[in-house]
Amino acid sequence: MKHILAILLAVICSLSATPRSVTFDYVGGEDGSRVCLRLPRGVREVRAMLYCHQNMTEEVLFRSPSFCRAMDSLGVAMAYVQRGSQNWDVADGCQQRFDSIVAAMARATEHPELATAPVIPFGHSAQATFPWNFAAWNPDRTLCIISFHGDAPRTNLCGYGRANIEWGRTRNIDSIPALMVMGEYEWWDARLRPALAFRMMYPDSRISFLCDAGRGHFDLGEPTQHYIARFIAKALDDPRPAGGVLYSRWQPDGTETTDPHECFWYQDEEMVALTRERYRAERGKRMQHLTATVDGLPAVYDPKRHIRLNATLPDTVRTFTVVPSFCNEAYDAASDDHASVRPRVVLISGPAIQTGEYTFEIDPDYFGRDPRRLWDGITLSLEASGDDRYKTAVRELNIQLKKP
Length: 404
Description:
Blueprint: H1 2-16, E1 26-28, E2 35-38, E3 48-53, H2 58-63, H3 65-74, E4 76-81, H4 94-109, E5 119-124, H5 130-137, E6 145-148, E7 177-183, H6 189-201, E8 206-212, H7 222-237, E9 245-248, E10 263-266, H8 269-282, E11 289-294, E12 297-298, E13 300-301, E14 309-314, E15 319-327, E16 344-349, E17 352-354, E18 359-362, E19 377-384, E20 393-402
Parallel strand pairs: 3-4, 3-5, 5-6, 6-7, 7-8, 14-20
Antiparallel strand pairs: 1-2, 2-4, 9-10, 11-12, 11-15, 13-14, 15-18, 16-19, 17-18, 19-20
Helix pairs in contact: 3-7, 7-8
């Protein structure tokens, strides 16, 4: 009975904290694209600005009450920009566009400090190279760098699938706190190696790394949001740290090394402890798997697709349901091999509003809608917490809105 009450309370609390839509203090744009800004609540002067280009999980941060509260407490504004440069090639005019955008925000919001405020470039997947290159061209303007489920600095494996740009011999990101995050369920050691090599090549760099243990490529869970918020808070307190702590890279078997060639830099022992605890909580446990029905019909699992669970709905639909459930490893039958938890659904990106635990409605005013990119897809994350026996489970789900 206590277990059931705990689940019900958790559901009620999560629903009460879920915003129906995203509220911005400034919405502007050019050529049909949109630029949106959220100012920190209760703060007279902005201390820094989280600057995101549209891809996917950037949207999660703007919908997250806990992350927004954390940014409020730090005095950090949050900017969301459509059609942002993936590689930050200044020959394409991205620097001038950035300068124009922040100047417009400063004028429109009566916060002149936005025009010169320190920037936290954040990018996911195809946008995960941009933060490194932005910082290389704007080192004095960059507070810290966050490449999420993404790339190493100067990597040869850019998330957008094309060649990186050259920095030249004198450009670097020395002393700037930087964080690379890679999900455990998307692990590819070849993506990690360039970050370790960069740290050795540039000993004054400050490259942190988090294996997003128990997570995949398309999700951004609250523990990781908390980790990112702490990283930003420490960068605000010490923007160019002289010290720091080395800690071992992630190893699936739980081993740790003191070899500096296999270690990353962390701001202090607290960040090392947070990292170690994330790793400890997921190691040595059994997998559990999730699927879902969308408006009563089972989603289709295809292991060859980037997003492996897919469903379609008519573009005339106004409301829909997504009900997650546990399944076997082949995704073709139900399973009792899982933790005693209730799975949840988290909206990642697309024109939808979460109205209940498993209910959604189409959002005609979706802030990410871009006519050129035709954002008709809705991406969600099916999630289930782990316990003493089972790892955290996540599975991405894409819903395409198509003409009947």
